[in-house]
Specification:
Layout lengths: L10 H18 L2 H21 L4 H23 L3 E14 L14 E11 L2 E2 L3 E7 L11 E10 L7 H9 L1 E7 L6 E3 L5 H16 L2 H12 L7 H9 L10 H17 L4 H18 L4 H19 L5 H15 L7 H24 L5 H25 L1 E3 L2 H13 L2 H13 L4 H7 L1 H16 L3 E3 L4 H14 L7 H20 L5
Parallel strand pairs: 4-6
Antiparallel strand pairs: 1-2, 1-5, 2-3, 2-4, 5-6, 5-7, 8-9
Helix pairs in contact: 1-3, 1-11, 2-3, 5-6, 5-15, 5-16, 7-17, 8-9, 8-10, 9-10, 10-11, 11-12, 12-13, 13-14, 13-18, 14-17, 15-16, 18-19
Membrane topology: Multi-pass membrane protein
InterPro entries: ComEC_N, Competence_DNA_uptake
GO cellular component, one term: plasma membrane
């Protein structure tokens, strides 16, 4: 029908698209192109928002794009960098292979430390720094201690093409530190923060009561930290498309929140109190996971759904996804370059857009739990496919069947696992409870390793960013959110498949 919308108007999606476009422009365009784009967006906003008041979508997109460009430019201007020399002081916040008490361990004969609260000759530096010390420096370093030494701090300017810049921005480790005389280093006793103590205590409980490979997997699954996971443990999960399990996915956050919500419901708490308690739990968990994008995205979407219940208004998951994306990019523009951030949203879009039709088709021939599992796995992989091919060059053909087995084994017991880890951390004799809780996860680890050994069959392709730009609009047309007829939706989905097939067999000039 003439004038009908192709999809429902969702302001949050236009805002997210505009912010993402603005951040990308700030990062990748030369100064003259940025200036031209600012003029274009400002003129388009004026024309659409003032002269033609019915063009609210264009006006919102342009305003969001200007905000995204401003956020990106402010980030680039404020990114800590430079070289400094003098007396450096800082507090140890992390150390490779530290034990449950925070005592630093050795890696290749060296201590690998992270320091925050940095200063050089009394001048404060933003963020953290990484420091490598030889084992001969001293043997009593631990998280929370303060170090003083004469040396140098150097930080590179942010570059969108540099993976090291992205890592520095994500973990706020902006500087590489060097001690000119490690033997002259001064240490002052300190203590870990509450968050650091909790992480260390849970880590100690895991390693005291579980096999080493299982403990490293559980630590990664709880905190999203793969520093203690060997490549031997991680590789089978990457090869079988189940690496999302140790990235603290939205599934884990949702399971944790709704387990806590059930407890709060049993206590008959009023809705506002329950919402505030849930929000506090989410903020604490985000802090424990270093505010990784997938955790923040999931927490924001869950709390938006809960707030809608409290206010007794309709909740729209797609709008919540767009709002969380726009908010994260405005506060941390560099996440636009992060594979985890992009894949988290791609997976959610795939599930929201394709789960229902897949489930309706599958439940006619399969049991409901099996149909649900296959539908979620296939839908998420429809959204993830181009990004997985772009970042990794291949997608395992075992992804769906392995996920059907491993995800229930590792995730269904997640609340019990986390509770057991907390109890074992507080009451060490209760470690047997954690050992019991880890059994399903151990089974999942062993199954994944066996599956990776059975077959290495994979879909290999050279997928470019431009192909992703073509793929996702077609996917949006094919999703349940568009108002196109079934033939057009089927054609759009077929074109997505054709793009993928072409990338598998040909080197496309895009």
């Amino acid at each position: 029908m003439k004038g009908a919308r192709l999809c429902a108007y969702r302001p949050a999606l236009y805002a997210a698209a505009g912010v993402a476009a603005g951040v990308a422009a700030a990062f990748f365009l030369p100064a003259w192109a940025k200036a031209a784009l600012v003029f274009f967006f400002a003129a388009a906003f004026f024309c659409a928002g003032v002269l033609k008041k019915g063009k609210r979508e264009l006006a919102l997109f342009c305003a969001a794009a200007l905000a995204g460009m401003a956020a990106g430019e402010l980030f680039l201007l404020g990114f800590p960098s430079g070289s400094f020399e003098g007396v450096i002081s800082g507090r140890i916040t992390d150390a490779t292979f530290c034990d449950e008490y925070g005592n630093a361990g050795l890696s290749g004969g060296n201590y690998l430390l992270e320091l925050d609260g940095l200063s050089v000759d009394g001048r404060a530096l933003a963020g953290r720094g990484s420091l490598i010390l030889p084992a001969s420096a001293r043997a009593d370093l631990k998280v929370g201690d303060y170090l003083y030494f004469y040396g140098a701090a150097s930080g590179e300017e942010f570059s969108p093409e540099s993976y090291q810049s992205l890592v520095a921005a994500k973990y706020r480790v902006y500087y590489s530190l060097q001690a000119f005389d490690a033997g002259a280093l001064t240490r002052v006793d300190g203590s870990p923060s509450a968050v650091e103590s909790m992480r260390l205590a849970i880590k100690g409980a895991l390693y005291d009561n579980c096999r080493e490979d299982t403990a490293s997997f559980l630590f990664a699954m709880i905190f999203g930290d793969v520093a203690y996971m060997s490549d031997e443990v991680a590789k089978p999960f990457r090869d079988t498309g189940t690496a999302h399990l140790f990235a603290v996915s939205g599934l884990h956050v949702a399971i944790l929140f709704y387990a806590c919500a059930r407890v709060l419901d049993k206590l008959k708490m009023p809705s506002p109190v329950r919402f505030c308690s849930g929000a506090a739990i989410m903020v604490l968990y985000c802090a424990l996971c270093s505010f990784s994008p997938s955790v923040v995205r999931s927490a924001v979407m869950i709390m938006a759904a809960e707030l809608a219940k409290v206010l007794k208004t309709r909740y729209d998951a797609l709008s919540s996804m767009g709002a969380s994306c726009a908010a994260i990019l405005l506060f941390a523009p560099y996440f636009l370059l992060d594979a985890g951030f992009l894949m988290s949203y791609a997976a959610v879009f795939g599930i929201l857009g394709f789960y229902k039709p897949l489930f309706r088709a599958l439940k006619k021939v399969l049991l409901k739990p099996l149909a649900e599992g296959i539908a979620v796995s296939v839908a998420s992989n429809i959204g993830l496919l181009p990004l997985m091919l772009y970042y990794f060059g291949s997608v395992s053909l075992l992804t769906v069947p392995v996920n059907l087995v491993v995800v229930p084994l590792t995730s269904a017991f997640y609340p019990f696992l986390l509770l057991s880890a907390l109890i074992a951390a507080l009451i060490p004799p209760a470690g047997a409870l954690l050992t019991l809780a880890s059994v399903p996860t151990l089974a999942g680890v062993l199954f994944t390793q066996a599956a990776a050994n059975v077959s290495s069959a994979a879909l290999n392709a050279d997928f470019s960013p431009l192909l992703c730009v073509f793929y996702y609009p077609l996917l949006a047309i094919a999703s349940v959110f568009s108002r196109f007829d079934k033939k057009i939706k089927a054609g759009a989905l077929a074109l997505c498949g054709a793009l993928t097939a072409a990338a598998c067999f040909f080197v496309l000039p895009v």
